[in-house]
Amino acid sequence: MTKRFRAARFLSLLLAMVLLVACSSGTTDQQPGDTTGTDPGGSSPSGPKVLRVATNVDIASVDLHMTTNYNDRLPLLNVLDFLIGLNDAGAPAPVLAEDWVWSDDDLTLTINLRQGVKFHNGQEMTSADVKYSLDRVRTEGPRASEFAVVQDITAPDPYTVELHLSEPSAALLGALANPIAPAVIVPEGEAERQGGQITKPVGTGPFKFVEWLPDQHLKLAKFEDYTVDERPASGFAGKRLALVDEVMFIPIKEASVRADALAKGEVHIADEIAYQDYLRLQDNDNVTIEVVPSATFGDVRIGFKQGPFANDKKLRQALLYGTNREELVEAVTWGLGEVAYGGVPFFSEFFGPVHQEPVPYDPDKARQLVAESSYDGREIVLSYTPGVWQEMAVIMQAQLAEIGINARVDNLDAGSSLQTWNTGAFDVFVTGLSLRPDPMNYYMPFWHSNSSPAGYNNPEYDRLNEEAARTTDLTQRKALYGEIEKLLRDDVPWYPLIHVTQTQGYSNAVEGYEVWSAGYCRVWNVTVNN
Amino acid sequence: MAHFGRRILALVPVLLSISFLTFTLMALIPGDPAVVMLGADATPDAIEALRETLGLNKPFPLRYLWWLGNALKGDLGLSLYQHEPVAELVAQRIPTTLLLCVLATIVSIVVGIPTGVLSAVRRNKTSDHVIRLLSLVGLAMPNFWAGLLLTMAFSVMLPIFPITGFVSPQQDFVGSLKFFVLPSLALGLTLAGFLSRLTRSSMLDVLQQDYTRTAWAKGLKHRTIVYRHALRNALMPLVTVIGLNFGVLLGGSVVMETVFNLPGVGRLIVHSISQRDFPLVQGSILYVALFYAIVNVAVDLVYGYLDPRVRFG
Question: Which residue is closest to A414 within chain B, CA to CA?
Answer without folding.
Answer: B274
